[in-house]
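Action item from last meeting closed. Structure (226 res):
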């Protein structure tokens, strides 16, 4: 089993010390920077926009994993490519022509991801799964950090893993929302490849140490215990 990636969600960073927190992620054992874009329409909250993403991109040294929680994401695909996104993930529920959106993301040289809200059945991805680089399973209702993990996520991760195998897809599975050291092991066992964590990392006294401990345990679970 391959090693699990850790993607700290900058939504939980201290925006007064954004450069410091980005550099903390750069110098930690984390793998990606997770960037949450919320428009106040698709989700009931607004996070941050292009000037902030530009600042993040200027300081970040790891891949930028951009999670768009916005309506009509096609309007911004090119902009995020220019800003340096490595992965661009759109919501299934926000795309009328999902196949076209996925192709447009790839045409801009980015890896394409699709996120599913907690109520959305993973089988709805059946006809696009081969085109995807990433499936993001939301383990909370999107819009806010610090919410409680929804337990049926394990089953969804397992189901999407089966779909990926059956379809001979190379998509990675990312889980986002309420992730912590307690649910990480079962998520990896169910098939998760990337764990996003906001509050669990940034709201601790020593975020670098929290990342290191999470990374070490996930490495151990991936290799020896599952
Ligand atoms: C929620 C966002 C998440 C959020 C995770 O809508 O997509 O990335 O920042 O935060 P925690 O880990 O605090 O649930
Ligand atoms: Zn996210």
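Sequence:
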């Amino acid at each position: 089993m391959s090693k699990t990636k850790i993607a700290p969600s900058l939504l939980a960073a201290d925006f007064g010390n954004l450069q410091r927190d980005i550099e903390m992620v750069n110098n930690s054992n984390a793998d990606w920077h997770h960037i949450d874009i919320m428009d106040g329409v698709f989700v009931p909250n607004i996070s941050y926009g292009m000037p902030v993403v530009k600042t993040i991109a200027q300081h970040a040294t790891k891949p930028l994993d951009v999670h768009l929680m916005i309506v009509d994401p096609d309007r911004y695909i090119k902009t995020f490519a220019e800003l340096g996104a490595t992965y661009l993930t759109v919501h299934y529920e926000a795309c009328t022509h999902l196949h076209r959106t996925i192709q447009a993301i790839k045409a801009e040289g980015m890896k394409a991801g699709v996120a599913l809200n907690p109520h959305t059945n993973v089988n709805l991805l059946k006809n696009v799964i081969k085109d995807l680089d990433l499936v993001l399973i939301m383990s909370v209702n999107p819009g806010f950090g610090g919410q409680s993990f929804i337990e049926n996520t394990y089953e969804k991760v397992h189901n999407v893993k089966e779909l990926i195998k059956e379809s001979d897809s190379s998509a990675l599975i990312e889980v986002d929302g309420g992730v912590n050291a307690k649910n990480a092991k079962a998520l990896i066992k169910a098939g998760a490849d990337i764990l996003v964590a906001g509050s669990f990392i940034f709201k601790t006294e020593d975020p670098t140490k929290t990342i290191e401990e999470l990374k070490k345990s996930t490495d151990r679970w991936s290799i020896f215990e599952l």
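Note appended to the action item: Residues 124 and 189 are 23 Å apart (CA to CA).
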